[in-house]
Write a structure and sequence with these properties.
7 strands; Aconitase, domain 4; alpha/beta; single chain; seven-stranded mixed β-sheet
């Protein structure tokens, strides 16, 4: 997992509440376990008509938001089923940060485990950032994880809270496998002791 420190990029406004994981990535795109190529299915039902043709009306299909790295969203983002393809699809499109008042718990945890930063802010601050994002002339904001600050182009700084463990995992680029590998020496020592004390557990079953 790549280390995460600071992102400066276009913020796209998506002021919809209760966007569930099926809206983020519909079920027909869940046949793959690859993390690439899912960007084409991101918000598919919001970006296409009944025939599946792209309308070009959705925010991420309009300039400058086609290059968005930050998403400003409504309350309860990521609710619904626990599909891990949802953060994969956002990341494959290029989204690195999602800012909203609240998130569904499973989506929240899945996103951090995949290296994406989710930030919770009060609704008033979300509304202010929506105004910034809705300005196509200058919708760029900066998110500094180390300092826990969001910098808007008008000079306003929004501090945010984040669990210290999740913060360190992102800063150091550690997913569950990375965290386990940090314990490699301890795990190796345990296996060595177990092999000497319970050798039958390691015998070739064949």
């Amino acid at each position: 997992m790549e280390k995460f420190n600071k992102v400066t990029g276009v913020a796209a406004p998506l002021p919809m509440v209760n966007i569930d994981t099926d809206k983020i990535i519909p079920k027909q795109f869940l046949k793959t376990i690859a993390r690439t190529g899912l960007g084409k299915g991101l918000f598919y039902e919001l970006r296409t008509d009944e025939s599946g043709k792209a309308t070009g009306d959705f925010v991420l299909d309009r300039e400058p938001y086609t290059n968005a790295e930050i998403l400003i969203a409504g309350d309860n983002f990521g609710c619904g089923s626990s599909r891990e393809h949802a953060p994969w699809a956002l990341q494959d499109f290029g989204i690195k940060v999602v800012i909203a008042p609240t998130f569904a718990d499973i989506f929240y945890n899945n996103s951090f485990k995949n290296g994406m930063l989710l930030i919770k802010l009060p609704q008033e601050q979300i509304d202010n950032l929506m105004i910034v994002a809705n300005d196509p002339e200058n919708p760029e904001i900066s998110v500094d994880l180390e300092k826990q600050e969001i910098h808007a182009p008008n000079g306003v700084v929004y501090p945010f809270e984040i669990d210290e463990f999740l913060k360190q995992c992102l800063l150091e680029g550690l997913d569950d496998i990375g965290l386990t590998m940090q314990r490699g020496e301890t795990i190796g020592g345990f296996e060595g002791d177990q092999k000497s004390q319970q050798p039958w557990l390691y015998r070739d079953a064949s």
